[in-house]
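Could you please consider the sequence and fold appended to this message?
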Amino acid sequence: MAGTVRRVLLPAGWAPLAVIVAHEVAARCFGHEPIVDPVMHFSGGVAAAFFFRRASAIGGRLFGSPSPLAADLLAFGLACAAALFWEFGEQLCDVYLGTHAHTSVTGTLRDLELGVAGAMFYLAIRRVVRLGARARV
C-alpha cells in the first residue's frame, strides 16, 4: 500500500502542493485580495482535478481502471469535495484559531465557485486535447 501511495504522490501530488506554496508566497507579497485569492482558488480546482484524475489512472492498476468518463466524473466530484472541505477548514480556523479567512458568505461562495470552475476547466481542456490527439491519428 505504501508503494501505491508513493506512486500516486510523486507524479500527481506536486500540483496541489505547488498551489499551496504559490498561494502563501503570493499572499505575503501582494495580499490575498483582490487578485491572489481568486486566482489561487481557481488554480486549486485545477490542481485538485489533476491530482484526482491522475491518481485514478495510477490507482486503477490496483483497484481496476474506470472508463475515461468515469475517471473524469470521479476527479470532478472529489475536486468539488476538496474545495468544500477546504472552506470548512478555513471556517474552523476562523472560529477556533481566530483567523479571518472568511470575510463574507459571498466570498466563501466565490471561492467554492472558482474551485469548481477550475476543476471543470482542467477536465474540459484535458478532454478536448485528448479528442484532438485521437482525431490526428
